[in-house]
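Bug #2210: token dump truncated for Nucleoside diphosphate kinase-like domain-containing protein?
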Amino acid sequence: IYVEKTLAIIKPDIVDKEEEIQDIILRSGFTIVQRRKLHLSPEHCSNFYVEQYGKMFFPNLTAYMSSGPLVAMILARHKAISYWNELLGPSNSLVAKETHPDRAIYGTDELRNALHGSNDFAAAEREMRFMFPA
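Reproduced locally. Full output below:
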């Protein structure tokens, strides 16, 4: 079985739910390969979300992501990227509450969606190198 890795981020507004979220991750068949708690500057957030640059929500996104500590994790399992994104549901929490109510328990709106997941293999590789440069 091919084991794939992806990046997961517990965003600043729900870092206090880290233990609960890690329990869900482990019960969903993932292994947490690496984990670190960090506080990104607005500049680091801008670099992390470079693909979103120029979009109307970009300034609010970087402000939100630099508003407090976050937890970055490398998760591993078979088809990690697709399984993690399926677990997360839609990125807009308001949509997720309608379509995936059991998965949308932490997000509050279209920006504060509580958790991050890499979109594809290339994004996962880039994002994991960004959060875990060593």
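Output looks complete on our side. The helical segments are 18-27, 42-48, 58-65, 80-88, 93-99, 121-131. Marking as cannot-reproduce; reopen if the truncation happens again.
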